[in-house]
């Protein structure tokens, strides 16, 4: 377990080039996030100071990675950006200011018929892989589909769909990227860095609400049929805040067959029950010899939710994700087609 105090101590041992003080004392890290085995923060500096702070970012990243038990570190160096337009202010600083305002309304995104969450109780179970390939399968069935990467801990859509570059703004709306027939937005595209962005809870939900409601997902003439949202893994406060503020029509929960992952899937289902979002079903990922098989189906029975099918542990899925494209054909793509058909039917599409 990584704790905040030891992370801060490690960071404070690194001097801030501007003031000579330790990074923490100098107030350099913004949005410091410390979780069980991960930590991350943002360094935001004027554009002409990014070169001076690049070694600081590297030193901080290396020092945090060297901490025992640390699995993932993300230090993002961004240049302070002037707001591009009235609604285009998605920089962390701007998002942070928004915190003082009234609670964010749970607006539905305009011209989006259904919002579907892909969730998991536990990290690393293949939630993003499922979200991307399920979205692609829904698109293959003729629906118009968007995908929103709301995984503030580790946005993976930029890699899995080969997205890069900050989104454009037009008339105060964010123009989503288009990739593999999907409209796509990721919390990972909101910074200038290639690194993942890590947001504090309130910042995260504000940013995601903005991405949901201010992205031009569809138009009056061409509405989006379904927006797939890749939620951050886990069932903590961040997830609760996000799903409370996100108008979800249904959720699918991804689990591996192992007992530990299934217990987490149960917690995810409970979380959705709390916010009255129907769990459309459970998907078993990485099914097969290594992790066993059938656990998710049995668990779905115990929870009284539908079982949507299993996806084998298969190198082609990982390779497709690494290469930035969903699977387009073959046996596993066909399995996603079957899952997509059930999901579309449950969403009334
Ligand atoms: N069925 C599968 N067969 C083989 N590899 C898989 C499968 N599903 C996912 N993977 C691989 O496992 C890794 C984790 O998957 P993914 O990033 O989709 O998980 P996640 O639940 O979104 O993780 P995180 O909690 O970090 O967001 C990736 O390298 C992915 O390519
Ligand atoms: Mg993921």
TrEMBL record:
Annotated GO MF terms: ATP binding
Membrane-traversing stretches: none
Annotated residues for binding of ATP: 121-128
Keyword Cell membrane: no
SUPFAM superfamilies in alphabetical order: Fe-S cluster assembly (FSCA) domain-like, P-loop containing nucleoside triphosphate hydrolases
First and last residue of the signal peptide: none
Limits of the MIP18 family-like domain: 5-75
Record's keyword terms, sorted: ATP-binding, Hydrolase, Iron, Iron-sulfur, Metal-binding, Nucleotide-binding
Pfam families referenced in this protein's UniProt entry, alphabetically: FeS_assembly_P, ParA
Subunit field text: Homodimer.
PANTHER family assigned: IRON-SULFUR PROTEIN NUBPL
Function (record text): Binds and transfers iron-sulfur (Fe-S) clusters to target apoproteins. Can hydrolyze ATP.
Family note: Belongs to the Mrp/NBP35 ATP-binding proteins family.
UniProt-recorded name of the protein: Iron-sulfur cluster carrier protein
Native species: Brevundimonas staleyi
């Amino acid at each position: 377990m990584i704790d905040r105090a030891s992370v801060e101590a490690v960071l404070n041992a690194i001097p801030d080039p501007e003031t000579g003080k330790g990074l923490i004392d100098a107030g350099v890290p913004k949005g410091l996030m410390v979780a069980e085995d991960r930590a991350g923060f943002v360094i935001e500096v004027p554009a002409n100071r990014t070169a001076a702070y690049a070694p600081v970012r590297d030193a901080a990243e290396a020092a945090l990675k060297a901490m025992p038990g640390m699995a993932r570190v993300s230090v993002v160096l961004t240049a302070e950006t002037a707001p591009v337009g009235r609604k285009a202010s998605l920089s962390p600083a701007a998002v942070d200011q928004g915190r003082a305002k009234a609670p964010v309304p749970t607006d539905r995104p305009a011209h989006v018929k259904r919002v579907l969450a892909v969730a998991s109780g536990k990290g690393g179970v293949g939630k993003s892989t499922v979200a991307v390939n399920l979205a692609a399968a829904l698109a293959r069935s003729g629906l118009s589909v968007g995908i929103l990467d709301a995984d503030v801990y580790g946005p993976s859509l930029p890699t899995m769909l080969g997205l890069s570059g900050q989104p454009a703004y037009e008339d105060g709306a964010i123009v989503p990227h288009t990739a593999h027939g999907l409209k796509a937005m990721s919390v990972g595209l909101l910074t200038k860095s290639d690194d993942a962005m890590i947001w504090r809870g309130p910042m995260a939900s504000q940013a995601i609400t903005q991405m949901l409601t201010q992205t031009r997902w569809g138009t009056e003439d061409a509405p989006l049929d379904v927006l797939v949202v890749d939620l951050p893994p886990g069932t903590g406060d961040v997830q609760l805040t996000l799903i409370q503020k996100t108008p979800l029509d249904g959720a699918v929960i991804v689990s591996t067959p192992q007992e530990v992952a299934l217990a987490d899937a149960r917690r995810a289902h409970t979380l959705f029950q709390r916010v009255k979002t129907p769990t459309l079903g459970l998907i078993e990922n990485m099914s097969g010899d290594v992790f066993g098989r059938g656990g998710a189906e049995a668990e779905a029975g115990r929870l009284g939710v539908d079982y949507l099918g299993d996806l084998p542990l298969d190198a082609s899925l990982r390779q497709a994700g690494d290469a930035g494209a969903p699977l387009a054909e073959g046996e596993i793509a066909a399995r996603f087609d079957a899952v997509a058909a059930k999901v579309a039917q449950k969403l009334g599409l």
